[in-house]
User: What shape does this take?
Amino acid sequence: MKYIIEHMDKKLWPWSIIEYRHISSTVGKDNLIITNVKVKDHKKIDFCEVHSETTDELELDKVCVLDPAAEKTLDPSDSANFDYLVFGGILGNDPPEARTKDLQIRCAERRNLGVEQFSTDNAVAVAKEIISGKKLSELKFTHNLTIDLDEGEEMILPFKYLLVDGKPFVSAELVEFIKKKKGF
Assistant: This one.
């Protein structure tokens, strides 16, 4: 299975690079493709395949877009139906704005991972677990990850997080970035 992140923000933010690198370490650099990235930014993404074209312009077959608004939920049996799983690389707003609908790919089917919003790296990790044989209902999650900044300060990330060995699946590099910058 190949995992595609369609970069949908106008800029390639430092936190985006951190999150994309975390995805690469999760699925393997040979299984990750990031599309819609300006040529001047390609050097910043040296941990996977990168394209300036959109996913639609690559004209791939057997494509599934992961979209919280999709009617069907991704299922382990979908591993036989798709070669590519596509995710929108967007920093989610709270409340969600349903921007994945803007990700249009000809002939692609759509699946959801439930209706709640994940960070992109968590969406990929959850999809990988499902494609590897687990049902969504078998996975455990937490919500609203709290990151302590300074004494008396914290930042709450209002997303759904996969639990791995009882801990939220989050990049240590991202946590350090947020602590250093006191946000994004």
About this structure: The mean pLDDT is 90. The helical segments are 14-27, 120-131, 172-181.
